[in-house]
# Entry
Amino acid sequence: MSARRSCSTLAVSVFALVISLGSLTFSIYQDARVSEYRRLAIEPILAVDRILAPVEGYGGIGLYISNVGNGVANIVALKITYPGLEVDSPNDILAAIADLAVRESDELETVVAVGPRFGSKVQAGERVMLIGIPSIDATRERAEALGEYVFRIGLEIEYQSLDEKAPTKRVQISAAPDETQQP
# Structure
């Protein structure tokens, strides 16, 4: 009788061990899922937009970045390309783009280059103008000139979530081909 009892006790113990190991495995899996969900809940997603048609009046034309994700984006690197432009310092790039615009066309004398700069943060739901004309200075001629200018700008942004473990991401928009160059 005691052999039978020890056998049934062993079976119950093995069954309890299997159930506890299954519960532990499920808990570890759930923890990993919750961690992934939390990471995605604070993940920024940047988008680059060229606004080539006026939004209100003749204002709003320019190059923008938008954070369509849920978290804050930390700008790690910013690279802007434009035919004939070479700038070494990432913080001087937007000013160089604005200066080049002014040199290219008298209509672009009021072009402004604003953020973000290297190390800037773009909040969730925020749209930031990189280069454009303030609405107060916008005219039809300036809007057309800026539309043509913005179309030739290429942009590459590397950004990261505020979570230091998150990988660096990249968003880019290519410049339109320069039609003045012969193949």
Q: What stands out?
A: The mean pLDDT is 76. The chain is about 35% helix and 25% strand. The helical segments are 2-41, 93-104, 140-151. Residues 16 and 22 are 10 Å apart (CA to CA).
